[in-house]
From TrEMBL, chain A:
PROSITE patterns: ABC_TRANSPORTER_2 (PS50893)
SUPFAM superfamilies cross-referenced by the UniProt entry: P-loop containing nucleoside triphosphate hydrolases
Secretion signal span: none
Domain ABC transporter: 30-265, 284-528
InterPro entries assigned to the protein according to its UniProt record, in alphabetical order: AAA+_ATPase, ABC_carbohydrate_import_ATPase, ABC_transporter-like_ATP-bd, P-loop_NTPase
Keyword Heme among UniProt keywords: no
GO molecular function: ATP binding; ATP hydrolysis activity
Coiled coil (UniProt feature): none
Name of the molecule in the record: Nucleoside ABC transporter ATP-binding protein
TrEMBL record, chain B:
Membrane topology: Multi-pass membrane protein
Name used for this protein in its record: Nucleoside ABC transporter membrane protein
TM spans (from-to): 6-31, 43-62, 68-89, 96-114, 145-163, 192-213, 219-238, 245-265, 271-289
Lineage: superkingdom: Bacteria
Chief localisation class: membrane
Organism of derivation: Fulvimarina manganoxydans
Cellular compartments per GO CC: plasma membrane
Pfam families: BPD_transp_2 (PF02653)
Keywords annotated in UniProt: Cell membrane, Membrane, Transmembrane, Transmembrane helix
A GO term, aspect molecular function: transmembrane transporter activity
InterPro entries in the cross-refs: ABC_transp_permease (IPR001851)
Length: 529, 307
């Protein structure tokens, strides 16, 4: 969208004290000039300048780790920048903490929520104000907030504690909070990762309309091109902590934006899918499996789920709908209350011995926490599955450190894990390399069933391409792959078959491939169909 | 002259014990409730309580007024609370370890300063005779309550109001439930926690003064029987609700009175076992309120034990 047409839209709105169209035409509402932020020796942000105009919807585009969050956090007083200045309404301001930012009318919707889980939506909204009375009259506050919600297209229940809300509802509450606080500048940190595609369109569409009506400036942090092209006026691209480009979205193609964002880099090509016939017998079969207090968030109630050898079954769903529990059941971190899990026809109890015997492997989400011991070395972590066996597979009593190191060295090369060496603590590795190390451990040797949960969450493009290629290669070798992911694009790109989970149940199933109807999947993810 | 009540003497003595023994539990647990709501645990309250007992007794003896003694005990409690609060605000300091250290420090200091106070007699706190209507002396004795008991009940009700309806209470809950959220909304974390720990110390100090100035009403080194520690468990059992703390304190008070009551009706064997009733009750309650699947409901999420 060009600047001219935005200005025209403002002219329709007209007569507020300061015409937003003028404000937009003349000067930026908020500007960061030459911001630099270092963490120790690492420069997370290098001399970045960004300007926000009133009434515009501005995208801040970049890969994970490119410094997007660091930039806004340095602007809003969460971090203290090492250099540069923040200019608000043509005046240099010092924003020492988030409360200062709020007083100046700058609101941020964080990626991790900043609502108090045990408090209701009403309590959270009231407490977010700058002027909370010392004794709160809840009847009055409820009335005022209901009236405010009437005017909003986003709906949330006022009297429900936040920990009973879905992630999508929490995200909406965070956004409503900022609108309730009448923020003039709204920063959204990847807000759509917990929303269904339909919800994302609704929320971003509403905010866009709101920005042009009221002159509010919106800064959208994202790595999704579709959001940039559909909703944003201008875009600033970050790569490795530096600004590498900016411009009107209308003037840039997706390809150009991708080139700016990724830079010169070879991405691993995903191997083609072999037309291997999938195994006749299912490798993984769940029947009537229940776990957790039924009806509560994250509990599980699956009637039937089968995964055959040589296929990838993708589990789509918004986080908190039982996917984590499903992975934990197979990895042995949670217990089922009823039902049966079978692997290759045999009952499966998720003990180390059974997992070993049945060749079940797991790549859980947040592998550093769920699948590694951070302070132990890369080679120790890689040996977790095999440290008590010798080369022929029989039990040994004392660890064979030499063999462990040698094995780790091999895998570090094969999976191109970047580490100072096999004896470096695994927590010193970057997220993508921890993921590669765990994947190397889990795929080494024969694997009949591989469970992968959000395997590419938070990784840069290079690592994502690598890991996806490994998953497809495993499938081509005949491994049954259960892929649980909150990223619908990932599910669609990798799966042979797609199941949608909602409130612990599998509510929809369809074949994968290019012909997938994502709108239908999205509707099932949201629970209406 | 005592009327012969037979076995009725036991429930009556338990009731009396409930009203009398429960007060220290009540004060410590209300204070700890506020501290824990802010996201910290202070295990040092046992030491604060013993020091409060000594300071209260000494204060009353020196000033001649038991109420000034109570105030002195509370103020020393605040000092202990502040010490805990500040120490735990240093980076990488664990509140449980600090609590245990302060428990030992408090008891040790109390014994050191309290040596000369064992002999002299301090003025005692007055009692409210709720049983004046009865002719039976045991009923009168059982229904004699301390003004501190009534004040404790009022504080419990007031805390309920504070948690629900006031800004300061909501900020406290926020800090204890999600430090991240509180920080993002610009509320201070450390001052709130230090303040909450200081309040907890004040209440534990007052509880100690109750021990030395009302019941049992003397200062010696065996004045506390672990009330300060049990009260910490009691807060968990009461699910961080001040009124439930009141109920739980009554329950523990009653259990604590069981041993002496049985002894008074002439049970000569095994009553020592009943002296252990509050401790057994603690274990049983923790056992039966545990759940494999459910997280502690209502637990402040910043608490190091529930994280």
């Amino acid at each position: 969208m060009s600047a001219v047409s935005v200005a025209e839209r403002f002219d329709d709105v007209g007569a507020s004290e300061v015409s937003p169209s003028q404000a937009r035409a003349e000067r930026p509402i908020l500007e960061a000039v030459g911001l630099t932020k270092r963490f120790g020796a690492f420069t997370a942000l290098n001399d970045v300048t960004i300007a926000l105009m009133a009434g515009e919807f501005h995208a801040l585009l970049g890969e994970n780790g490119a410094g997007k969050s660091t930039l806004v956090k340095s602007m809003l007083g969460y971090y203290h920048p090492d250099g540069g200045a923040v200019v608000l309404d043509d005046r240099e301001v010092t924003i020492a903490n988030p409360r200062d930012a709020r007083r100046l009318g700058i609101g941020m919707v964080y990626q991790h929520f900043t609502l108090v889980p045990a408090m209701t939506v009403l309590e959270n909204l009231v407490m977010s104000r700058v002027d909370v009375p010392s004794v709160v009259n809840w009847a009055k506050e409820r009335k005022a907030l209901s009236a405010f919600l009437e005017t909003m297209p986003l709906k949330v229940p006022l009297d429900t504690p936040v920990d009973r809300l879905s992630s999508g509802e929490r995200q909406k509450t965070e956004i409503l909070k900022q609108l309730y606080l009448k923020s003039r500048i709204l920063v959204l940190d990847e807000p759509t990762s917990v929303l269904t595609p339909e919800e994302a369109r609704q929320v971003l569409g509403f905010l866009r309309a709101r920005a042009s009506e009221t002159g509010m400036a919106v800064l959208l942090i994202t790595h999704k091109f579709s959001e940039v092209t559909a909703f944003c006026d201008r875009v600033t691209v970050l790569r490795k902590g530096a600004k590498v480009g900016e411009g009107l979205v209308a003037d840039l193609s997706t390809k150009e934006m991708a080139a700016l964002m990724i830079g010169e880099r070879e991405l691993t090509q995903a191997p083609g899918r072999d037309e291997n016939p999938k195994s006749a017998e299912p490798v993984l079969a769940l029947k009537g499996v229940r776990s957790g207090d039924s009806g509560t968030r994250g509990s599980l109630a699956i009637e039937e789920l089968v995964v055959h050898g040589g296929e990838i079954v993708g589990i789509a769903g918004i986080s908190g709908n039982g996917q984590t529990r499903l992975v934990e059941l197979i990895s042995g971190q949670a217990q089922k209350t009823s039902g049966e899990i079978r692997v290759k026809g045999e009952p499966y109890d998720a003990s180390r011995a059974t997992a070993q015997a049945m060749k079940v492997r797991c790549l859980p989400e947040e592998p550093l926490r769920n699948a590694c011991v951070g302070r132990m070395s890369v080679s120790d972590n890689i040996a977790f599955r095999t440290f008590d066996r010798d080369a022929s597979g029989s039990k040994i009593r004392l660890l064979d450190k030499k063999r462990m190191l040698q094995r780790a060295q091999e895998l570090i090369e094969v999976y191109s894990i970047k580490t100072q060496g096999p004896s470096a603590p695994i927590q010193t590795l970057s997220g993508g390399n921890v993921q590669r190390a765990v994947l190397a451990r889990e795929l080494a040797g024969e694997t009949d069933l591989l469970v992968a949960a959000n395997p590419c969450f938070g990784l840069d493009f290079g690592a994502v391409a690598d890991i996806r290629a490994q998953l497809i290669a495993a499938r081509n070798r005949g491994t049954a792959v259960l892929l649980v992911s909150e990223d619908l694009d990932e599910i669609v790109a990798l799966s042979d078959r797609i199941c949608v989970m909602f409130e612990g149940r599998i509510v929809f199933e369809c074949a994968g491939g290019d012909a997938v109807d994502t709108t239908r999947i999205g509707a099932h993810m949201a629970g209406h169909h | 002259m005592n009327a012969d009540l037979g076995l009725w003497a036991v429930p009556l003595a338990v009731l009396g014990g409930m009203l009398r023994v429960s007060t220290p539990f009540l004060f410590v647990s209300l204070g700890e409730c506020v501290t824990e709501k802010s996201g910290r645990i202070n295990l040092g309250l046992e030491g604060t309580l013993v020091f409060g007992a000594m300071a209260g007794y000494g204060g009353a003896y020196l000033t001649g007024s038991p109420w000034l003694g109570v105030l002195a005990a509370g103020l020393f409690g605040v000092l202990f609370g502040l010490l805990h609060g500040f120490l735990c605000s240093l980076p990488k300091v664990n509140d449980i370890a600090v609590g245990i250290a302060l428990m030992l420090l408090g008891t040790g200091l109390a014994f050191f300063f309290g040596k000369p106070l064992i002999q002299p007699a301090a003025p005692m706190l007055p009692a409210i005779p709720l049983g004046a209507w009865s002719d039976v002396p045991q009923v009168r004795a059982a229904l004699e309550v301390s003004p501190l008991f009534v004040i404790g009940l009022l504080i419990a009700i007031a805390l309920l109001f504070v948690f629900k309806r006031t800004k300061i209470g909501l900020v406290l809950r926020m800090v204890g439930d999600s430090a991240d959220a509180a920080r993002a909304m610009g509320y201070p974390i450390l001052p709130v926690r230090i303040g909450a720990t200081a309040f907890g110390g004040f209440m534990a100090g007052v509880a100690g003064a109750y021990l030395s100035l009302y019941y049992p009403g003397s200062w010696n080194e065996a004045i506390s029987s672990g009330q300060g520690l049990i009260a910490v468990a009691l807060v968990i059992f009461a699910r961080w609700n001040p009124l439930a703390c009141f109920g739980a304190a009554l329950l523990f008070g009653g259990a604590g009175a069981l041993g002496p009551a049985l002894q008074s009706v002439g049970v000569t064997e095994g009553y020592y076992l009943f002296y252990a009733a509050p401790y057994v009750l603690t274990l049983l309650i923790l056992f039966f309120t545990s759940s494999r699947t459910k997280a502690l409901e209502g637990a402040p999420r910043e608490l190091s034990i529930t994280k």
